Amino acid sequence: MHNDTVSLGIDSATATVTLDRPDSLNSMSIGLCHDLIEAIETAESDRSVAVVIITGAGRGFCAGADLSQPALGAGAANEEPVDVPTLMDLYFNPAVRAIQACSVPTVARVNGIAGGGGFGLALACDIAIAARSASFVATFGPKLGIVPDIGTTWHLSRRAGRSRALGIALLGERISAAQAVEWGLIYAVVDDDALDHETARVAKILRDSSAEASIRIRDAIDVAPHHSFSEHLDVEREHQRVLAPLNLDEGIRAFLEKRSPEFPGR
User: How far apart are CA 174 and CA 119, in angstroms?
Assistant: First the structure.
């Protein structure tokens, strides 16, 4: 699949969704939001797909909203103010929800700048791997006078803690990939020439894993902050009640036989 702004390739149970507006560092137009949702839905509908990789074409991951579009910005010439809440409801939030709710694990391959809404897209993926030259920046507050959106404040508050989250959002300073790892914003940073290899390595682990277990692991992590310790023990027990009959015998046999497990559905 190749739309005007997003391409989708599927190979070896891995779907690669590429934001494809390299001349604008893959900034988010209305069309890109629509095409991103379509690409993720297409990947999910393919039962062979076990993992979705999201990346950017050229030298950037995603620079955020395309403010040159009249509907999104170019605002000085507009007679009417930009209706940001409506744009969020119709385009940006559905795009990030599609990533967050994807039925298979998602991996952000951050090959360059992830700014503004692009920062939010990377944070929405289950695992983010960045090239060492990549960077992250929340420009909303100091540059645009608005709140970081498409879930950025939600993720920052949970991963970085209040002090760092406020510093990132209020100051809008560029964060290196190494700093992002240290602060718990992303999973890993690798040398630029190792990004493809590391992304492929992680994708292989995910696609060889139990699909049902991957979904339930993500759910257990996501709901944990809402439970007491004792309540969450019950959540884990319920997941094991479903997963153990499906997977555990095969997992133990594979371990004893020194081979990779072959879980149902893979």
Answer: 11
Q: How many residues does the chain have?
A: 266
- What is the full per-residue pLDDT of the chain (266 aa) written as tens digits? 768 899 999 999 999 999 999 999 999 999 999 999 999 999 999 999 999 999 999 999 999 999 888 777 655 555 677 888 999 999 999 999 999 999 999 999 999 999 999 999 999 999 999 999 999 999 988 889 999 999 999 999 999 999 999 999 999 999 999 999 999 999 999 999 999 999 999 999 999 999 999 999 999 999 999 999 999 999 999 999 999 999 999 999 999 999 999 998 75
Q: Which long-range contacts (CB under 8 A, 24 or more apart) does 189-193 make?
A: 189/129, 189/130, 189/131, 189/132, 189/134, 190/129, 190/130, 190/131, 190/132, 191/131, 191/132, 192/131, 192/132, 192/133
What is d(CA 235, CA 247) in angstroms, rounded to the nearest whole number?
Answer: 18
Counts for the chain of helices (H) and strands (E), in that order? 11, 10
Residues 18, 108 contacting (CB under 8 angstroms): no
Residues 6+ apart with CB under 8 A from 29: 5, 21, 66, 69, 72
